[in-house]
Amino acid sequence: MISEIPVPNRPDLACADDAPTRQTIRVGLIGSGIGQSKSPALHMVEGAAQGLDYRYELIDLTERGLSPEALPDLLAEAERQGFAGVNITHPCKQRVLPLLDALSEDAQAIGAVNTVVFARGRRMGHNTDWSGFYRSFRQSLPEAKIDHVVQLGAGGGGVAVAHAAIRLGVGHLSVCDIDAAQAERLVSSLNARAGRVVATVIPDPAEAMAQADGLINTTPVGMDAHPGLPLDPALIGTRHWVADIVYFPIETALLAAARAKGCAVLPGGGMAVFQAVGAFELFSGRAADSARMQAHFTTLIRNA
């Protein structure tokens, strides 16, 4: 049984509908090379639709000529300026951990934070990457068989997706990564939290794919900057479902190959949207209209 993820409650934020003027919410994104991020548009358009004066700013380390060591100062700056919180992306998702006062249960389990909420003088770290994949999967592949799943990649995105996979009820996760030690760390963590063997490291996906129900790609292979396929497409059969977390392009070579074989596919855009949905809800204390945000994301990608 897959449980619902509750919408967070932010009692420290007043409801704009009860106020004489529009409530202002100021947030941002800290990371390197984030100039093409769709997060500002996704957040601000949803905020405006809900009657908020919602401002989302990019705090780009590359643009400012800063290294990740500047993160403590950037967090303090955002707090001083009255931000409700900030999203965190590469290369700061783990570096931010010692700078926080508390972590959500999922962020602590994953060991990475992509959303920091400032409230009552405290910094609370959350991870909406995992819930982004979780919600996207539930929406698009609700009937998919998940007894055995192969996951390619055990890096930052892979850790969050693996957490989501176990929360979804995947019976066994076979993890393959070119960095065997990284895969071992992820698998050991998953098994320790579950108290049983729910994941194993595989050196090659071929044998596991013959038994698996589905495949998840969490590697960068397939991105515009890393074109190609993360595995031999001959390993994909009609019975498989295939998910990718890459969304530039939205139809990766992997998804195109799977679709051509009649497989059910899950593009990475869904995870991108739902991680933004989760962050918006944490920052604003309001339920986001996920369908509206998905429609807006589709427009943004089409016009990119």
From TrEMBL:
<protein>
    <submittedName>
        <fullName>Shikimate dehydrogenase</fullName>
    </submittedName>
</protein>
<feature type="domain" description="Shikimate dehydrogenase substrate binding N-terminal">
    <location>
        <begin position="29"/>
        <end position="116"/>
    </location>
</feature>
<keyword id="KW-0057">Aromatic amino acid biosynthesis</keyword>
<comment type="pathway">
    <text>Metabolic intermediate biosynthesis; chorismate biosynthesis; chorismate from D-erythrose 4-phosphate and phosphoenolpyruvate: step 4/7.</text>
</comment>
<dbReference type="InterPro" id="IPR036291">
    <property type="entry name" value="NAD(P)-bd_dom_sf"/>
</dbReference>
<dbReference type="InterPro" id="IPR046346">
    <property type="entry name" value="Aminoacid_DH-like_N_sf"/>
</dbReference>
<dbReference type="Pfam" id="PF08501">
    <property type="entry name" value="Shikimate_dh_N"/>
</dbReference>
<keyword id="KW-0560">Oxidoreductase</keyword>
<dbReference type="GO" id="GO:0019632">
    <property type="term" value="P:shikimate metabolic process"/>
</dbReference>
<dbReference type="GO" id="GO:0004764">
    <property type="term" value="F:shikimate 3-dehydrogenase (NADP+) activity"/>
</dbReference>
<keyword id="KW-0028">Amino-acid biosynthesis</keyword>
<dbReference type="InterPro" id="IPR022893">
    <property type="entry name" value="Shikimate_DH_fam"/>
</dbReference>
<dbReference type="InterPro" id="IPR013708">
    <property type="entry name" value="Shikimate_DH-bd_N"/>
</dbReference>
<dbReference type="GO" id="GO:0009423">
    <property type="term" value="P:chorismate biosynthetic process"/>
</dbReference>
<dbReference type="GO" id="GO:0050661">
    <property type="term" value="F:NADP binding"/>
</dbReference>
<dbReference type="GO" id="GO:0005829">
    <property type="term" value="C:cytosol"/>
</dbReference>
<dbReference type="GO" id="GO:0009073">
    <property type="term" value="P:aromatic amino acid family biosynthetic process"/>
</dbReference>
